[in-house]
Specification:
- The structure is a single chain.
- With 298 residues, the chain is α/β, with parallel strands linked by helices.
- The chain is 48% helix and 13% strand.
- Strand 7, helix 6 and strand 8 form a beta-alpha-beta unit.
- Helix 3 runs parallel beside helix 5 and helix 7 packs across helix 10.
- The two termini are 28 Å apart.
């Protein structure tokens, strides 16, 4: 696959919020953060941690300045961004104190927050953790799909623990705003409940729907499909890797979300001949869809 064309570095647009940025995990999200930071602050040092093949690609893309396959390279970082899947981020968090001897801000990009905040309670005082979740993404993953504009005009939720330094939260807010995102602050519990409906349920629904339809009609049947099925199942192209961690770490919120959808589908199933329930569901859906298209940036 051809690598994205990286434009020559522009002049710095103001002083960097964090002079040295370390990103652990250079997939779609981590790679896009690196590219956006390099574009925004050309003189900022961007450190990447990943496997050797990914680091070589990141170097060719000019996404990072320094790379290593272990955490020793984090020593001088002002901010560490954990951009691996949720369970890996939790494991990485427990190792950071060994490599970061001076104060630093630590954040992550995971789609669930409670488990990360619980693990962050064990960090030494010099490391300030603020949970993070950029709501920009794509149906495909990997560094090859990273781009510097992935987060522009997209929400970026921060989930600090109670009592977290306001200075760290403000710095991260400034950082993500400079990358083009719109920062907001939520409690971790509320984040995980809301995202179970806004993100996790749609992903599972689209994947299940595509699997059911494809199995039922086969390749020849899919050749007859219109835009409706294609648009509805766009998320079905998502890689499953990160979703195992998301569902495991947010099962208590995703379960009720699935139950709510199953209940509506069952009511439609039970009322197919009369179609009275269908009219209610369609009217309700149309009203909420109007709200979505006029107000939401998701």
């Amino acid at each position: 696959m051809d690598l994205p064309l990286i434009q020559p570095r522009r002049a710095d647009l103001g002083p960097p919020v964090f002079p040295t940025i370390a990103i652990v995990g250079l997939g779609l999200i981590g790679g896009s953060i690196a590219l956006a930071a390099r574009e925004r602050w050309p003189s900022t040092l961007v450190i990447g941690v990943d496997c050797v093949d990914v680091l070589e690609t990141a170097m060719r893309m000019h996404a990072i300045d320094v790379g290593a396959s272990d955490l020793h390279v984090l020593a001088g970082a002002d901010v560490v961004i954990l951009a691996a899947p949720v369970k890996q981020n939790v494991a990485l968090l427990a190792q950071l104190a060994e490599y970061l001897e001076r104060p630093a801000v630590v954040t992550d990009t995971g789609s669930t927050k409670r488990e990360m905040l619980a693990a962050a309670a064990a960090l030494p005082e010099r490391l300030t953790f603020v949970g993070g979740h950029p709501l920009g993404g794509a149906a495909v993953g990997g560094l090859a799909h990273a781009r510097p504009d992935l987060f522009r005009k997209r929400p970026w939720i921060l989930t600090p623990a109670p009592g977290t330094s306001a200075t760290a939260v403000d710095a991260l807010s400034s950082f993500v705003a400079a990358l083009g995102s719109t920062p907001s602050v939520m409690l971790a519990d509320e984040h995980d409940r809301v995202l179970a409906f806004l993100s996790h349920l749609p992903q599972l629904t689209a994947s299940a729907l595509m699997g059911v339809v494809g199995t039922a009609v086969g390749a020849d049947g899919l050749a007859l499909a219109g835009r409706g099925l294609i648009d509805t199942t766009r998320l079905a192209s998502s890689p499953s890797g990160i979703w195992r961690d998301i569902t495991a770490s947010n099962a208590d919120q995703i379960g009720p979300a699935l139950d709510a959808l199953i209940a509506v589908l069952q009511s439609l199933r039970d009322d197919l001949p009369a179609a009275g329930r269908l009219e209610e569901v369609f009217a309700d859906a149309a009203a909420w869809r109007q709200q979505l298209t006029t107000r939401s940036t998701l």
